[in-house]
Amino acid sequence: MPRSKSFKKRTSACLAVCCLAARTTSAYFVISEPTRDTQWTIGTPNPVRWNKGVDDGISLFDVEMARLSVEGLTLVARNVPARNTSLNILLQDVPPGDDYFLIFMNSTHGLMYATSPRFTVAPASTSSGKSSSPAVAGVETVTVSGAPNPTQPFATTFAALGNGGVLPSWGSAGHAWGMGSVLVGCLLGAAWTLR
Question: Which part of the chain is the Yeast cell wall synthesis Kre9/Knh1-like N-terminal domain (predicted)?
Fold first, then answer.
């Protein structure tokens, strides 16, 4: 009886150490622009900016735009390279409203990475007290037109990355340490069990 309790404690400790050692990702993905006080104007490029974790395994994501009061979804850009930190969106013939928000996700697998705060889309002739940042120079501009319609294809599809954007590179030191820790933990668990 004491031997089985000892085995259970050792196995549990080994599994806990392996799980902690294998955790090499940092989940951090924040849309920094647009903010709650942002007003996008139809007919001008509007900036989107984000910050994300370095070793999170996300190399591509999709950008979608939605509204809170109206059903529907606008598919903006597919396969956006996550290494970029900004993108411009030019709105044409989009219904004005103060309840828009952006969604960064992997639409193939349904994984949502981040959502923006609610922001306003105003007609070209309107000016209000809300801020409107200038477009980011030197980055892609995606043109979106029409009312939300999830059956329409993405307005822009970026080229996929060389590794398909699916799996992270196994050449990083963090992954090597994680896999090595798991292997050592398994060997120690086997040695304790057979002892």
Answer: 34-121
CA distances from residue 99 to 30, 37, 161 in whole angstroms, order as listed: 19, 12, 33
pLDDT beneath 70, residues of the chain = 1-27, 126-132, 161-175
State the Cα–Cα distance between residues 136 and 51, nearest whole angstrom.
Answer: 15
Sketch out the chain's domains with CATH numbers: 29-157 (2.60.40)
DSSP 8-class letter at 109: T
Across the strands, what pairs with 48?
87
User: HEC profile for 21-45?
Assistant: HHCCCCCCEEEEECCCCEEEECCCE
Do the Cβ atoms of 193 and 6 come closer than 8 Å? no
Q: Given this model, what pLDDT does residue 21 score?
A: 44
The predicted structure's pLDDT at residue 132: 67
pLDDT in tens, 32-47: 999 898 999 999 999 9
Q: How far is CA 153 from the centre of its chain?
A: 20
